[in-house]
Structure formats: C-alpha cells, structure tokens
Amino acid sequence: MSKNKVALITGVTGQDGSYLAELLLEKGYEVHGIKRRASSLNTERVDHIYQDSHQENQKFFLHYGDLTDSSNLTRILKEVQPDEVYNLGAQSHVAVSFECPEYTADVDAMGTLRLLEAIRFLGLEKKTKFYQASTSELYGEVQEIPQKETTPFHPRSPYAVAKMYAYWIVVNYRESYGMYACNGILFNHESPRRGETFVTRKITRAIANISQGLEKCLFLGNMDALRDWGHAKDYVRMQWMMLQQETADDFVIATGKQISVREFVTLSAKEAGIELEFTGEGLDEVATITAITGNDAPALKVGDVIVKVDPRYFRPAEVETLLGDPTKAKEKLGWVPQITVEEMCAEMVENDLNKAKQHAILKEHGYNITVTVES
Ligand code: NDP
Ligand code: GDR
C-alpha cells in the first residue's frame, strides 16, 4: 500500500491527468498538480476532486506553473519533493503542432528536459521516479505492423518529433544518472473527458448535437485513418504500474485492435439510434441517414446528410495506421485493457447526448444556446 507517497502531475487538468489524479488519491497518495494560468477557468476535469486549502487533511494540491518555465518547475519540485513525477503536460494536438511547431517543441521536448534537469539539480534523481507520456505518434510512417517497443521510429509531425526528443532524453537520463525514468508509449486513448477537438470526441459530440438539432453537419478530414483506440482509465492505471517496478523500463500500451475514423462515426451514430451509409469518394464522400431507431434523434429524418469531408482537417503529413502490440506490458506487468472501443464509444455518446439534450431543452424554452462547433 503506497499510503504516504507524494506524486506530482504535469497536465493534471487534461484528460489523463484528471483520471490519474483520481487513481492516485484512491491509492492514498498526496497529489500535486501543475495548472496553467488561463483567462478562463480550466480545471473542469478536476473540479470534482478539488480540495479547499482550509480543509483538514488536504491531499490534492494545485500549483500554477508551466513547462516553459524552469524556475517555476524547480521551485515546485523543491517544495513538493515528489516520490513520483508524471509528465503528462503537453501541447498534445498533432494538427495544431503544424501551426505552432516552435511552441510545441518548447513544451513537449524542452519541457521534459527542464523537469529532468530540475530533478537532478535538486539532488532528487535517486528519490524521484519519472514517467514520460510518450506516444504511438513516434512510429508515424510505420515500419512494422503491429508496433512494439523495438519498432523503429519515424515521426510525421512537429508534435511527434518533439515527443521523440522527450523519449530519448528520458532514456538518456536513465542511462547517464541511473534515474528511475521510463516511457509509456501510449496509443490513442479516449473517454468522455477527451478534448473536444480530437477526432473521437469531435464525432460523439457532433452526433449528439446533430441528433438534437443543435448542429447541422459534421465535417471531417481523413476518414481512412486507422487507430488503436483504448480507454484513458485503463491507460492511467498502466502509467502508475510502470513506476511500481524494480527497474525502469519502456512499454507499449495499446489494445492490439484498430478501426478507422469512418468506422468510429458509424459506431457513434448507432449508439444514438442512427444508421448511416457512406457514399462518394475523396472530397465528395458523405454519410446519409438510412434509418432511425429509438427516440434519441428527434431532429433528424432518413435521407439527411450529416457527415461531409472538409480538406481543412487534412494534415501536411498523415499517420495512416497505428496498431500496437502490448505483449510486453501484459507479460511483465500483467496489464490488460478492460474497456473495449465499443464500450468506450457508448460511454462517450451517452455523455454527449445527455449534454445535448439539456441544451435542446433550454433552447426549446427560449434560452439562447450556442454550441461551439469550431474545431
Ligand atoms: P490533454 O491535451 O487532455 O492534456 C494536456 C495537459 O497539458 C493539460 O492539462 C494542459 O493544460 C497541459 N499543458 C499544455 N501546455 C502546457 C504547458 N505549456 N505547461 C504545462 N502544462 C501544459 O492530453 P491527454 O491528457 O490526452 O494526454 C496526456 C499526455 O499524454 C500528453 O503529453 C499527450 O501528448 C500524451 N499522449 C496522449 C495520448 C492520448 O491518446 N490521449 C496518447 C499518447 C500520448 P490546459 O488544460 O490548461 O490546456
Ligand atoms: P491523433 O488524434 O492525431 O492520433 O493524436 P486525433 O484524434 O487528432 O486524430 C486521429 C486521426 O483522425 C484523423 N481525422 C481527424 N482528426 C481530428 N482531430 N479532427 C478531424 O476533423 C479529423 N478528421 C480525420 C486525423 O487525421 C488522424 O489520422 C492523438 C493525440 O492524443 C496525441 O497527443 C497522441 O500522442 C496520439 O493520439 C497517440
């Protein structure tokens, strides 16, 4: 039982950070998280576990900070003296990394170095274990199917290149200074807390909004892309497990199954009682409703076109297919994912449908409801 351990999570306000903070609190950890200053509130994903500083036995603490600021990271590490650091903070959107390559490198690559160097500078390298949020995007233009720990990397975006630096600097600090530092090479993982501009959440949210008449059409980029999608809850469990071993090591975390973006659309629509047919090719591809079952789509009728292609969402270089082989994680750590892509999709659609139905009721009663569709 890891009762009195202290953990520091960068990116605690993100999808994984919020699930990991929950998990560590359940395990009795004192959990510290770094949040960024923003002009509007950005703690929605951790508000339910927030603890007021006036509360007795406070176990969850938030610190203002940024991965671009060494002095701030050093000060927080000195104050917190963590047993475990989980570096989940990142500019994590692949498409955005083409728009902001320098910032992405600063946060995702240099940010990792700043943290490792601060740990070393403070003399914590023998006390503090370090987890790095590495990614299947490292494989990019894949050299082998499925991808495992020994598969060569070929990153295809400024995000992936920055994460490749982070991957190797973690290995280097492990080899140079004997630090317990490891990479989780995680394949895509989603949940109802997934950021709204990643494709799965964009799809489940749009299907929900369209079904309630709050949005007209879902515009997507490359629907042929194949991904190995798991559930974030399963994956943060593995992040913790990786830091509980005798020696540090790197692991691929994946389900070993893949489906296309198009199949994820079909799956999501089905969850909302909508049957779709895809016709046309390339930029002319559309999805038309062929049947409606149940009562979840009052705003729609058979024949409506609800999905179209918008080349704005194509990327300068695409990662067409990712499929992970999690054998090492299974054999060495006993980790197996418990939630299937179908179950995850159902949970996401249900969550977004509930929100959309609430908005639709408010709209019906004259409230001015605007749904953000820019993504
Ligand atoms: P999110 O985008 O949901 O969360 C990213 C977090 O990083 C947010 O808390 C964000 O803060 C924070 N952040 C962004 N920029 C900075 C900065 N400059 N300084 C400090 N914090 C910052 O990502 P996920 O939770 O999905 O992913 C967690 C990590 O795992 C990321 O590093 C991601 O690259 C990596 N990863 C994710 C995978 C996935 O499929 N989800 C797969 C493989 C790797 P704010 O809330 O203010 O924006
Ligand atoms: P990815 O996730 O790039 O794999 O990175 P994302 O959900 O953004 O894209 C998956 C695939 O879907 C295609 N796609 C679209 N993507 C978005 N976002 N919006 C669209 O409209 C759209 N249409 C098609 C993409 O081209 C791509 O092929 C995620 C992030 O969480 C990273 O931080 C993480 O490292 C990797 O997963 C593993």
Automatic annotation (TrEMBL):
<keyword id="KW-0456">Lyase</keyword>
<dbReference type="InterPro" id="IPR006368">
    <property type="entry name" value="GDP_Man_deHydtase"/>
</dbReference>
<comment type="similarity">
    <text>Belongs to the NAD(P)-dependent epimerase/dehydratase family. GDP-mannose 4,6-dehydratase subfamily.</text>
</comment>
<dbReference type="InterPro" id="IPR016040">
    <property type="entry name" value="NAD(P)-bd_dom"/>
</dbReference>
<comment type="function">
    <text>Catalyzes the conversion of GDP-D-mannose to GDP-4-dehydro-6-deoxy-D-mannose.</text>
</comment>
<dbReference type="GO" id="GO:0070401">
    <property type="term" value="F:NADP+ binding"/>
</dbReference>
<keyword id="KW-0521">NADP</keyword>
<dbReference type="GO" id="GO:0042351">
    <property type="term" value="P:'de novo' GDP-L-fucose biosynthetic process"/>
</dbReference>
<dbReference type="GO" id="GO:0008446">
    <property type="term" value="F:GDP-mannose 4,6-dehydratase activity"/>
</dbReference>
<dbReference type="InterPro" id="IPR036291">
    <property type="entry name" value="NAD(P)-bd_dom_sf"/>
</dbReference>
<feature type="domain" description="NAD(P)-binding">
    <location>
        <begin position="8"/>
        <end position="348"/>
    </location>
</feature>
<dbReference type="Pfam" id="PF16363">
    <property type="entry name" value="GDP_Man_Dehyd"/>
</dbReference>
<protein>
    <recommendedName>
        <fullName>GDP-mannose 4,6-dehydratase</fullName>
        <ecNumber>4.2.1.47</ecNumber>
    </recommendedName>
</protein>
